[in-house]
Amino acid sequence: MARPKEHKPETILAAAVSVFRSEGVNVSTARIAKQAGVSNGTLFNYFPTKQALIDALYVSIKTDLAAAVGSLDDDDPIETRMKVIWEHWLGWARDNREAHHVVNLLHQSGMASSGAQLAGMALLSGPVSVLEEALDLGLLVNLPLEHLGALIQHHLDQAVASDLNDEQATVAFGVLWNGITKQDIRSSKKE
């Protein structure tokens, strides 16, 4: 006797990425279920509400991104660690354009709950701690951490949208780094 096809939550999450990317986040769960090849009831077996689906998707994408960013060597200079974060994040975004777009869409639309956003931030605590360390050491311009994070995110998003090659991405990192570091820090490097 043939076993019934199993529908894993990953299949539903992948379908949600595709549907959200092409149709926006206000689509019905029925549309996502159809894309996943499952019934709406099956979708709700895994995700009891649309909010649960959105939050699981948001955290799943952030988990994948955090794995791509990887761990950082605390002995490396901050600029080196920031460049590693930039390169790995950008590489992930290039390889996962749909997921990159959808996670930004969920965040910007406010559809990912505050709990999911906090979980996502915790997953990316490495990059956040590098920024906090740079601020504590007085290396960065005097702006709130959230603003600096948003600037970095915008630069990454623009690098992905512009489809920069590796050389251009290195230049873009330099522009970003020079824009967020204090003038006296940049001047002392030239001496």
Protein described:
- This protein has a domain at 71-190: Tetracycline Repressor, domain 2 (Orthogonal Bundle).
- It has 11 helices and no strands.
- It is mostly helical and 191 residues long.
- The mean pLDDT is 91.
- The chain is 75% helix and 0% strand.
- The chain is elongated.
Distance between the termini: 77 Å
Q: For the record, what CATH class of the domain at 71-190 applies?
A: Mainly Alpha
Q: Supply the number of helical segments.
A: 11
Q: Output mean pLDDT.
A: 91
Question: Would you identify the CATH architecture of the domain at 71-190?
Answer: Orthogonal Bundle
Estimated radius of gyration: 19 Å
List keywords for this structure.
191 residues; mainly alpha; Tetracycline Repressor, domain 2; 75% helix; elongated
